[in-house]
Amino acid sequence: MKTPMKSLVLVLGLSSAASAWCEPSSNVVWNAETRNLLKNASPQHGKELASACNGCHGKDGTAELDFNFPSIAGQNAAFTYKQMLDYKDNTRGHGIMQSFANTLTDRDIADLSVWYQTQALPVVKTEDTRGEEFEVTGRARKLATRGDGARLLPPCAACHGQRGEGAVVDVPALAGQNPSYFTNTMYEFKSGRRGNDLYSRMRIIAQSLSDDEINELANYYGSIGTPEED
Ligand code: HEC
Ligand code: HEC
Predict the structure, then answer these.
(1) Which ligand has the shortest distance to the CA of 27?
(2) Which residue of 37, 120, 157, 173 is surrounded by the most CB atoms within 10 Å?
(3) Ligand 1 in contact with 187 (CB < 6 A)?
(4) Can you give the pLDDT at residue 180?
(5) In the predicted model, is pLDDT for residue 67 greater than 60?
């Protein structure tokens, strides 16, 4: 991990005001209008707009692992759409992403979201340094697939899918996600700094996990993207 750049990104990320607990988690409404916007979106136009995003999110949406930028390739379009609107009205506070979202209409955002969804989930390489960092513990695998009854923790897979592929409406894919982003956003759910999850679903879960468990889950999900082809 290249620490200086990572801390710079963290500092930039923290520069905007934290959302308060009393505000609504999100103002996105899953009504016919939102569904139609996504249904009639133009991935071709989304691809053109995505040239503004590649610098941080990587070509086609697979981010470099050195920084805490999320991969958005293969992501559930409804989830991406919701996040962008949450950045726009600051229900998810992040200065840089808010300024990008503000340059886009809701239709542009739908086009981008659908284009990214058509890309494959991040490819996981097995034979580079990344493979060594991704030590997957039995504890992480158990939390992901079976949960922990003693803490009333549901398995992550119950919502995020057996292979971390995401699910209906707003549940994101986690497979192949950049572990430094994964860890960062889970810590933010845990502290309440990120509070745009409807019904506090992720805040409640993150609060019952230790920091070590979060790091191990980040490695687990980071290791299960699309396997690299020979
Ligand atoms: C200067 C770097 C930068 C650029 C350029 C950028 N982003 Fe981001 N983006 C970030 C960072 C950093 C985050 C994580 C912010 C956070 O923790 O909330 C992020 C988060 C996101 C998320 C949330 C992903 C998730 O998994 O929750 C989406 C969606 C997103 N960006 C889409 C875009 C799109 C679309 C564009 C182009 C219009 C774009 N970004 C341009 C840095 C950037
Ligand atoms: C009850 C359903 C549910 C369960 C169980 C669940 N999640 Fe989530 N998770 C969600 C939803 C919904 C979101 C999207 C929140 C939002 O709109 O920002 C989310 C978001 C996330 C994100 C942020 C993704 C991104 O790209 O920004 C991470 C990381 C995450 N979950 C990890 C986990 C882990 C690890 C577990 C298991 C310990 C877990 N989740 C269990 C529903 C769930």
Answers:
(1) 2
(2) 173
(3) no
(4) 93
(5) yes
